[in-house]
Amino acid sequence: MLQHIASISVLGLMFVIATVLPVNMGALAFVGAFLVGTFLGAMPAKTILMGFPADLFLTLVGITYLFAVAQNNGTIDWLVRLAVRAVGGRIAAIPWIMFGIAALLTSVGAVSPAAVAIIAPIALGFAARYKINPLMMGLMVIHGAQGGGFSPISIYGGITNKIVEKAGLPLNEMATAFASLGVNLLVALGSSSHLADCA
Questions:
Q1: Residue 149 in contact with residue 143, Cβ under 8 Å?
Q2: How close are the terminal C-alpha atoms of the chain, in Å?
Q3: 3-state DSSP helix/strand/coil percent for the chain, to nearest 5?
Q4: pLDDT tens digit string along 124-170?
């Protein structure tokens, strides 16, 4: 029981330190795991490291790096401009373009908050220019980002699928991905129609 309480206390302390100081949470987690494992669990370093999901870590690093390259080289801005040009003068399609781009970004590896942080300013700029409800535009971006978030090659999808697989539960990766996309699509449809009626 002491080990459980100590582990939870160390976890809470890690959150406090990471909130107050500019310290990486992952680095703190390594320190916390070794402190608890070594002093309370009497575990050797090799045993502690066996709990680290190296394959998942490499997947996450690769996906995050790919997204960072796409962001820095202007690919995302180009994609948004191309998509908006494709709809021509159909202003009503622009929120759905933002939904689709946000979903695409998270489905190929962007973390949802990062995708929203990148797409939302662009989307709100279009909302101001074309007099589109900014609340609706923001909701479309957020639901798009969440909708694509559980694809098999996304960060959330990768973590979820690994945990389900390790637990020995039945798993259909594509069903999970499409369920998330479908729910967020339905909510976006409801939100857009309601806000269009209120406008």
A1: no
A2: 57
A3: 80, 0, 20
A4: 888 888 888 888 899 999 999 999 989 888 878 888 888 888 888 88
Taking alpha carbons only, the member of 65, 163, 174 closest to residue 114 is 65
C-alpha Rg value of the chain to the nearest Å = 21
Q: How far apart are CA 43 and CA 93, in angstroms?
A: 58
The gap from C-alpha 195 to its chain's centroid, in whole angstroms, comes to 26
Token pair, residue 188, equals 């976006």
d(CA 108, CA 75): 13
Structure tokens at 55: 């394959």
Burial class (CB in 10 A: 0-12, 13-18, 19+), 83: middle
- Of 170, 165, 146, give the one whose Cα is nearest residue 53: 165
